[in-house]
Structure formats: structure tokens, C-alpha cells
Amino acid sequence: KKQFVVIGLGRFGSAVALSLAEENCDVIAIDRDEAKVKSIADQVTLAVQLDAMDEKALKEAGVQNVDVAIVSMAGNVEASILAVMILKELGVKKIMAKALNDLHGKVLSHIGVSDVIYPERDMAQRLAHNLVMPEFLEHIQLSPEYSIVELPAPDFLWGKSIVGTKLRSEYGISIIAIRRAYRANGEKKESWHVNPPAAEVIRKDDILVLLGANRDIEKLG
Amino acid sequence: KKQFVVIGLGRFGSAVALSLAEENCDVIAIDRDEAKVKSIADQVTLAVQLDAMDEKALKEAGVQNVDVAIVSMAGNVEASILAVMILKELGVKKIMAKALNDLHGKVLSHIGVSDVIYPERDMAQRLAHNLVMPEFLEHIQLSPEYSIVELPAPDFLWGKSIVGTKLRSEYGISIIAIRRAYRANGEKKESWHVNPPAAEVIRKDDILVLLGANRDIEKLG
Ligand SMILES: Nc1ncnc2c1ncn2[C@@H]1O[C@H](COP(=O)(O)OP(=O)(O)OP(=O)(O)O)[C@@H](O)[C@H]1O
Ligand SMILES: Nc1ncnc2c1ncn2[C@@H]1O[C@H](COP(=O)(O)OP(=O)(O)OP(=O)(O)O)[C@@H](O)[C@H]1O
After folding, report:
1. What's the whole-number average pLDDT of chain B?
2. Residue A186: which pLDDT band, with cuts at 50, 70 and 90?
3. Nearest Cα residue to B115 out of A52, A30, A69, A131
4. Average pLDDT over all residues of chain A
5. Mean of pLDDT values over A37-62
6. Which pLDDT belongs to residue A221?
7. What would the DSSP string read from start to end of B67-92?
8. Distance of alpha carbon B15 from alpha carbon A126, whole angstroms
């Protein structure tokens, strides 16, 4: 069973602690604010009020035994940096930390943080991406060059077989799944047809799940 | 060309404004804090210092003409709610807003926000998910039942053709892409082989990009 410590119970830190606890992990939750420690206490393994710059207190809380530490005190740069240093000295192998900005993030990387996290910025970029390409119901960046998008089947593809669409031969785009609505017991349901055969015929109201290079996907949008 | 207004230039709001501007959209950026307005002014179409509860000032800034408004003042519940009401009255069709917590989010939904956003909580859940399933380099929830994961090819698959792995016939899992490292001009590079043919042979160090039902994916992890 994996053990985690979350230091800093702001919006991000407390959400991480709670999500990990919900997945049945052991979570030590730490903050210097008593109210925050109390409000999470019965949802995590151990909730401790202490100052993260206090090496002795951190050791007594047992943080040296965790697999992963998440430091989430972006608003207190000094404390976040010192807490990371202490965790390193106590031998914690994997440390992730939320950064206030790029400069803070660079310092954190330099002192041994394996994953520097920018939650607001990352979510903002995903939102902006989805807003700019609204023809797609969903847009997932699989890598810098490849994306997965979901798109209601355009009318010119209805009645065509997958191979007949030439999406792959002409655009290099694969239909990796088709979401198709159907009725069962008077209820509207949806089934996923994953990796459909080349002969599968596309119907009106199908939602196509596509994988392709970004520039090819954009030609479809 | 799509037009947006972002009200509230905290970490999330400013990141949204900048990401949209980078995608060449028209962005009006609004905040009551002069320093924040100034620091973004030359990166957006228009940056205005005003109080978002001032209907007259919002109208003068031209917000009634935008396609989408993003309200990002989670720390100021009253201002976020009043700003949404004003935007609705000015006829803005799509309003998204960042919420401080569930209760704030419910109120925002009731007054007409189409998308209530919880950036820190959403990123925290994705992080927790990735931490709990560390065998996967990447885990994307495509739908409640299907996921895409990336996994270094396990040794028992090296040298097998894709059809020979029986991943599809036995687990219903499709290999939708293979990430393969290669050398070019002395540099380490990576190429994506998307929708590889059934006869493609898996090599040591390949990273497999898989699509399947969650419970089947978990059997592999
Ligand atoms: N020295 C410290 N020791 C322990 N906890 C601290 C220390 N300094 C700050 N904290 C706690 O860290 C938490 C998060 O702090 P802060 O709000 O600065 O970070 P944030 O990353 O901006 O938060 P959010 O996740 O809400 O955006 C707060 O609950 C605060 O009490
Ligand atoms: N009435 C208002 N009119 C205009 N701007 C405002 C108003 N009230 C707050 N703001 C601005 O909204 C911005 C974000 O505010 P706040 O920090 O409360 O939100 P947040 O959602 O917690 O931010 P973050 O995205 O950094 O987590 C601040 O820059 C603040 O100046």
C-alpha cells in the first residue's frame, strides 16, 4: 500500500490528500493552520499541525517513510523550498511540488523536485484549447504532435464504411472508437465500439473518436 | 475570430487570457488590480482596470460582444456572482466561472454559468490517479469506462507481433500507437507509429499506447 504525505492543505493540497485517501492510500496531511488540519483529520490516515520548516516536527510525524511527498504551499516560497530540502535530507525518494511561477519552479527542480506542478496554468491551457476548437466535443493532447478528438460524424461520412472515408489514407487519422446511441427499455443509452473494423459503416448521430497528428485533425475541425 | 473576456486575472484567469491570446483569439482582460492589468496589457487585445460589479464600466469595456466570458475570481464570491448576473443581462451567451467550492459552484450553475470550473481539484484528482497507477506513464480517462494508458512494453511482449500479443482477443485492449526511440545525427529522438499494423513487432524500449475498458487495463497494470 502506497504512503503519501501532503504538506500544505490549500485548495490543491487538500484535494490531493482527499483524492489519494479515496483511493485507499495512506495519507499524512500537514498544515500549520489548525482549522485546515481539523477539517481533514477524519478522512486521512494522520493529520498533523506543524510548521513545515521544522525538521524535528516533520521527522516526528513520520514523513521519512513515505513513498511520495507532495508539497503544496505555492504562496509561501520559502517554506516550500525549505520543506523540500528537509524531505530530501530525510530520504524521501519522490517529491512533487506546486510552484507559484516559472522561477519558483526552476528552483524546485534544482533542489530535487521530480515533478513541478502548475495546476491553474495547466487547466487554463486545456480550457483554452477546448474553447478554441469547439467543433470537437473533447480534445485530448496525447503528445505535442498527436491528439485524440471526439466529433459528431459529419453528414458527408454517413453511410460510408470506415475504410471508405479515406480518413486514414488521406489524412492519417484513425477512428479508434465510435460512440453510438441506442434504445434499451425505453431509455437512451450509448455504447462504445472500440477499434471498429474497416468495414464498419458510420451512421448519423455517431460520435467519432479520432486519433491523428494535430495539423491533420485541425483540417477536419 | 472568437472573442473572449476574462474577468479576474489571478493565476487561473491570467493563464486563460494568455493561452487564448496565444491561439490568436481576441481577449479582453479585466481586473480591478492595476498591476495585473498592466502586466498583461501588451499580450491581449484590450486590458481594462475596473470593478467587475460596475455594470456601466463592463458595458463600456465592450463585454456584451464576446462569444464566451470566463469569470475567475473564486476568492471573491460576491463579485463573481454579480459579474455573472451582469454578463447575463448584457446578453453574453456562454459564461464559464471558476468556483471556490461546491456551494459556490451550485449558485453559479443556478444563475446561468454553463461550465463551473475547479482547476485545483481537477488537477489534484488527475495527479492522484497517476500516482496510484504508477505503472502507467500516462493515464487518460476517455469516458467513465474507457481509458488510454501509456506503458513501457513489458518484457514478455518483446519480439511479439501485435496480433501475437493477443491483447485484443484476450483483454479487448487495442494498441493504438507505439512510441519508439531512434537515433538521428547522434541525437535521441522518438517517433509515433499510429495505428500500427497487426504484423508490427514490439521491441524492447517501445512505449505502448493502449485503449481499453478500465477493468481490463487494470489487469495489465
Ligand atoms: N510553513 C508552513 N508550514 C505548514 N503549512 C504551511 C506553511 N506555510 C503555508 N502553509 C499552508 O499551506 C497551505 C497552502 O498555502 P498557499 O495558499 O500559500 O498555497 P497555494 O498553493 O497558493 O494554495 P492553493 O492550493 O489553495 O492554490 C495553507 O493552508 C497554509 O496554511
Ligand atoms: N470586484 C472585482 N473586480 C475586478 N477584479 C476583481 C474583483 N474582485 C477580485 N478581483 C480580481 O480577481 C483576481 C482573482 O481573484 P482571487 O485570487 O480571489 O481568485 P482565485 O480564483 O482564487 O485566483 P487564482 O486563479 O489565482 O487561484 C484578482 O486578481 C483580483 O484582483
Report:
1. 92
2. confident
3. A131
4. 92
5. 97
6. 63
7. SEEEE--TT-HHHHHHHHHHHHHTT-
8. 10
Domain residues for the domain of B162 are: 133-220
Q: Would you give the end-to-end CA distance of chain B in angstroms?
A: 44
Q: Say how many residues make up chain B.
A: 221
Measured torsion, CA atoms of residues A221, B2, B7, B10, in degrees rounded to the nearest 10? 50
CB contact under 8 A, B10 and A124: no
Domain's final residue, options A71, A88, A117: A117
- The answer, yes or no, to whether any atom of ligand 1 lies below 6 A from the CB of A32, is yes
The pairing of strands A146-152 and A138-141 is antiparallel
Do A183 and A140 form a contact (C-beta atoms < 8 A)?
A: no
Residues in chain A: 221
* Single-letter amino acid code for the residue at B185: N
Task: Identify whether B33 is part of a domain.
Answer: yes
| CA B28 to chain CA centroid, nearest Å | 21
**Residue type, position B143, single letter:** S
- Largest Cα–Cα separation, chain B: 69
Q: How confident is the model at residue B134 (pLDDT cuts 50, 70, 90)?
A: low
Helix (H) or strand (E) segment spanning residue A68: strand A68-71
Assess whether A160 and A109 both reside in one domain: no
Q: How far apart are the first and last CA of chain A?
A: 45
Across the range B45-49, mean pLDDT stands at 98
pLDDT tens column, A139-181: 777 877 888 999 899 899 999 999 999 998 888 899 999 999 9
Q: Residue B54's domain is classified under what CATH number?
A: 3.40.50.720
Tell me the pLDDT tens digit for each residue of B103-113.
999 999 999 99
**Which of A63, A93, A117 finishes a domain?**
A117
How many domains does chain A fold into? 2
Cα B84 to ligand 2 centre (Å): 14
Residue A43 Cβ contacting ligand 1 at under 6 Å:
no
Is the Cβ pair A176, B211 closer than 8 Å? yes
Residue A39 contacts residue A99 (beta carbons within 8 Å): no
Say whether both B73 and B43 belong to one domain: yes
Cβ atoms of A57 and A37 within 8 Å: the answer is no
Taking an 8 Å cut-off on Cβ atoms, the answer to whether A19 and B145 are in contact is no
Place of cell 506513464: B137
Separation between Cα atoms, residue B117 and residue A43, nearest integer Å: 24
Query: Which amino acid makes up residue A38?
Result: K
